[in-house]
Amino acid sequence: MVLEVMNFAYCQIYSVLKGVVKHKILVLNGVWAVHMDPVRNIVIEPLADAICGKQADIEHGAWSNYSVDELLFRAHELRAKRQYSLAYNCEDFIEELLGNAPRSPQRNIWIAAILCGAVFAIAAKR
Predict the structure, then answer these.
(1) How far is 122 from 6, CA to CA, in rounded Å?
(2) Type and span of the H or E element at 25
(3) Which of 24, 78, 115, 118 is most buried per CB count within 10 Å?
(4) What is the rounded CA–CA span in Å between residue 109 and residue 113?
């Protein structure tokens, strides 16, 4: 669902579990999905295609400083600038698309877990 008030769009952020990672999808008008895929990069497609028959949960709503048309234009612009990587994933993309600084809480948790595991492994050898 998207509600536009004075050219600000209210969007929904969905998540789909892919293995142990929650894939984030920005949903416009309850039908269109804008997301970043590791293989296809930045994709605009029907929501049903984006979730691939998996359970999709609405994580939260988000106000954007952009209209729906501007969000779609920004997605096309970002497609030319960004590539999926460990340093830039679907969470980073949605944050940047909405006009925020890129950030990925899931990546931060994974990095912290790996670092803690490494510290414990080193400590256990001593």
Answers:
(1) 56
(2) strand 21-28
(3) 24
(4) 6
What distances in angstroms separate CA 108 from CA 92, 116, 117, one per listed residue? 12, 12, 14
CA distances from 14 to 90, 114, 118 (A): 11, 26, 32
Tokens for 26, please give them: 């920005």
pLDDT in tens, 58-92: 888 888 888 889 999 999 999 999 999 889 999 99
DSSP code per residue over 40-58 = TEEEEEEHHHHHTTS-EEE
> Does residue 88 contact residue 102 with C-beta atoms inside 8 Å?
yes
User: Encoding tokens for residue 124?
Assistant: 């256990």
Per the document, the length of the chain is 126
